[in-house]
């Protein structure tokens, strides 16, 4: 994969992420903050962007989203299929909700 292909893939991910973030921000800002780890200010900004602004922002060679799982325990909680139990999804959501929000 050459550099142009990598940048093209990054732009596609950026556009998908920004569209998801905007949809969540407009539908339920608090949910967007928790699920995407965004601050209230960033959620309001993304929710208010026009389609043209979303496309311009996505057209970057810098990935705008990141993996929210920085600790092995969180990844394990989401991925542990051997010890799956009824409360596992709720437990994982509680762990993820403890992550600090990203700021603008």
TrEMBL record:
Gene3D superfamilies linked to this entry: Flagellar transcriptional activator FlhD
Record's keyword terms, sorted: Activator, Bacterial flagellum biogenesis, Cell projection, Cilium, Cytoplasm, Disulfide bond, DNA-binding, Flagellum, Transcription, Transcription regulation
DNA-binding among keywords: yes
Location(s), subcellular: Cytoplasm
Annotated InterPro entries: Flagellar_FlhD, FlhD_sf
Annotated function: Functions in complex with FlhC as a master transcriptional regulator that regulates transcription of several flagellar and non-flagellar operons by binding to their promoter region. Activates expression of class 2 flagellar genes, including fliA, which is a flagellum-specific sigma factor that turns on the class 3 genes. Also regulates genes whose products function in a variety of physiological pathways.
Record note on domains: The C-terminal region contains a putative helix-turn-helix (HTH) motif, suggesting that this region may bind DNA.
Family from the record: Belongs to the FlhD family.
HAMAP family according to UniProt: FlhD
Subunit composition and interactions: Homodimer; disulfide-linked. Forms a heterohexamer composed of two FlhC and four FlhD subunits. Each FlhC binds a FlhD dimer, forming a heterotrimer, and a hexamer assembles by dimerization of two heterotrimers.
Protein name: Flagellar transcriptional regulator FlhD
Designated gene of the protein: flhD_1
């Amino acid at each position: 994969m050459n550099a142009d292909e990598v940048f093209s893939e990054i732009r596609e991910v950026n556009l998908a992420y920004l569209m998801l973030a905007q949809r969540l921000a407009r539908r339920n800002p608090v949910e967007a903050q928790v699920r995407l780890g965004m601050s209230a200010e960033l959620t309001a900004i993304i929710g208010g962007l026009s389609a043209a602004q979303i496309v311009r922002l996505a057209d970057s060679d810098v990935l705008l989203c990141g993996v929210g799982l920085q600790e092995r325990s969180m990844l394990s909680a989401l991925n542990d299929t051997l010890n799956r139990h009824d409360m596992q999804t709720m437990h994982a959501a509680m762990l993820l909700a403890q992550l600090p929000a990203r700021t603008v």
